Amino acid sequence: MIKKAKDLPIDLEPNLKGGKDTVRIVNILQKNEMYGTGRLFGVSIIPPGGSIGQHTHVGDFETYYILKGKALVNDNGNICELGPGDMTQCKEGDFHSIENIGDVDLEYLAVILYSVKE
């Protein structure tokens, strides 16, 4: 499969999980292209001052890899600033939130995979 950037679908998510402003999600893969392994593989873009509100992951886990900008992340109560090259992972049963505290768009790779019970 090959997809050109101009053909990647973009979702607009206002006040995502109770957050501020509108998050743009560039879907690298659609859920049906993940072969049952997860529900998100994309680039999330949060404008300055915007955020995704605190939420808990049930049945899945999420990883962020920061590409551009400055983030304030709440990782299960651990508050930390992240920048390009940093990552955070929210495990199943834990909670997180992310806020753009910079003056440019915050861009990060977001991957949500389903938890596997062994």
Automatic annotation (TrEMBL):
One of its GO terms (molecular function) is metal ion binding. It comes from the Bacteria. The keyword Metal-binding applies. Residues 44-111 form the Cupin type-2 domain. InterPro entries: Cupin_2, GPI/OXD, RmlC-like_jellyroll, RmlC_Cupin_sf. Keywords: Metal-binding. Pfam families: Cupin_2 (PF07883). PANTHER family: CUPIN TYPE-2 DOMAIN-CONTAINING PROTEIN (PTHR35848:SF6), OXALATE-BINDING PROTEIN (PTHR35848). This is Cupin type-2 domain-containing protein. It comes from Desulfitobacterium hafniense (strain Y51).
